[in-house]
């Protein structure tokens, strides 16, 4: 199952078997059941997670108790409360499992150590962070510019598999529209 | 003026004078007048810019010709059309100068070369990218959760100096509210 992880790294830098084993030694493997929390508001966020299998959502609860989805994460994606992870401050988000999930977690200390010891892993994480930045910019533009229908279609085009695995109410929260609005939306302009 | 640039780098890694000169040699210095374009939709985005002085805005024009501000950038900030810069595809955003500006620009090829030659610069750029990611996540949460008044106050708290330098109509565009709504907003709850 670590194969997907190695494949992701090797899309950017190449590793020998020994090097990959060494990289893996900086991570801990964790299993969570559906509905279990991986990150909780107010707790430290000690790990950044790579998803080996399963599906998670990360979200905040606003003052009125309303949930706002920050991201989903399925196989091959990364997830953390990055503000908390990078600063050591308590998490302001929650992350829980929509499916049973298996994760590789790395502490900030271990990640810094790995990056310092292996220049090519520092390169890998820089490139991944750049990709992440671009994905978030795209999301901001989508939130600013698009109407609900356009946001819904864009989400489907980017991540079609989410639509099989995530309840519609959570997709609605992700694109910031009400469930009632979402029920009127269609994926294709030609669809009924 | 490059002092602010060196100071930013040295908050993360330390450099000798010779090393800093070497880093600088990867950048080109560019001067732009107020209203000049630095990035234009449809063109390649060949540079990532560090702002030595001045103030820029980056934005998209939607199909109806409405402007949506993606970011401002003043002294000590970075700016590019990152999707275009990283992929080589044409820019989908514009960036122009709100004030006369002096920039340091680095091509992707030069940045990759610099990072590959100097591990500590790869580390610097990884850390900066992480910070950038966190800032964008905060903005997404603000767009999803906050009403106009809360977004306006949050923007003021994060970047008070923007309020002296940026017209209110552009601040309205940045937080995604109409100019009419913005005119009713106050910075402090106690303010008239």
From TrEMBL, chains A, B:
**SUPFAM superfamilies according to UniProt:** cAMP-binding domain-like
Q: Which UniProt keywords apply?
A: Kinase, Transferase
InterPro entries, sorted? cNMP-bd_dom, cNMP-bd_dom_sf, RmlC-like_jellyroll
Name all Cyclic nucleotide-binding domain ranges: 11-114
In terms of domain of life, where is this protein from? Bacteria
Q: Name one GO molecular function term.
A: kinase activity
Per its UniProt record, what Gene3D superfamilies does this chain match? Jelly Rolls
Pfam family of the protein (one): cNMP_binding
- Please identify the protein, giving its name as recorded: cAMP-binding domain of CRP or a regulatory subunit of cAMP-dependent protein kinases
> What organism is the protein native to?
Chitinophaga ginsengisegetis
